[in-house]
Design a protein that fits this description.
Elements: E1 4-8, H1 12-23, E2 28-33, H2 36-46, E3 50-53, H3 62-72, E4 77-82, H4 87-96, E5 100-103, H5 109-119, E6 124-125, H6 127-139, H7 153-163, H8 168-175, H9 179-193, H10 198-207
Parallel strand pairs: 1-2, 1-3, 3-4, 4-5, 5-6
């Protein structure tokens, strides 16, 4: 029986390229999405064996989407496929529940190898990522402590939506909460991070890879 895969990436050309690669190797692509929130919804409906997940996506980034998928769809495995190579991004992804982490520049045979490893219940890190994380751990480089760990899951969601320019009313509609509750979350997360304005939040979000803004 063919392995079933779901593709999550905000670039159509990337999804098309991955679909071509996978289907040429008898792997079935059963769905795709361009943002994290849509990915979570569709994965819950389709229950694929594996999700190939980008990190920098609008509305809900790939790490937050991975955490939700791993909690709600325990039989589905997630492979992170990203341009982000920082030890912080890798460790946050693994902590969220990802089974593998690859760089987009490595997509190809290494992705196929990762899919086969993950499908049999094992973890997979590309050689470049493995070396990078090991070096960071040994040298105790900055970035190993997750600055987002002080925020709750909901606060991280609100943070991303705020820096993407969504109003409190729009965020409330997206998350099915009241405007007052959203404003409370926003005030609380800014206090926790020690950031006083939106420009500071945007800079923080870009630095820590939680939004596709550049």
């Amino acid at each position: 029986m063919s392995i079933t895969v779901f593709l999550a990436d905000d670039h159509t050309i990337v999804r098309d390229g991955l679909r071509y690669l996978l289907e040429a190797n008898d792997i079935t692509v059963i769905g795709e999405a361009s943002n994290g929130r849509e990915t979570v919804k569709k994965v819950k409906e389709l229950n694929p064996d594996i999700v190939i997940m980008d990190i920098l996506m609008a509305d809900l980034n790939g790490i937050e989407a991975t955490e939700q998928i791993c909690e709600e769809c325990p039989s589905t495995r997630v492979i992170m496929l990203s341009m982000q190579s920082s030890s912080e991004s890798v460790l946050r992804s693994l902590k969220a529940g990802a089974s593998a982490y690859l760089l987009k520049e490595s997509a190809g045979r290494e992705l196929l190898a990762a899919i086969n490893e993950v499908h049999t219940g094992r973890r997979y890190l590309s050689a470049k990522i493995s070396d990078h994380v090991t070096t960071a751990l040994l040298e105790k480089k900055d970035g190993l402590e997750d600055p987002l760990s002080v925020l709750s899951t909901r606060e991280r969601e609100v943070l991303q939506l705020v820096v993407e320019g969504k109003t409190s009313a729009k965020i409330a509609e997206t998350l099915f909460l009241s405007v007052k509750t959203i404003e409370t979350y926003r005030s609380r997360l800014m206090n926790k991070l020690g950031i006083k304005d939106i420009s500071g939040l945007i800079k923080f979000a870009i630095q820590h890879g939680i939004t596709p803004l550049e």
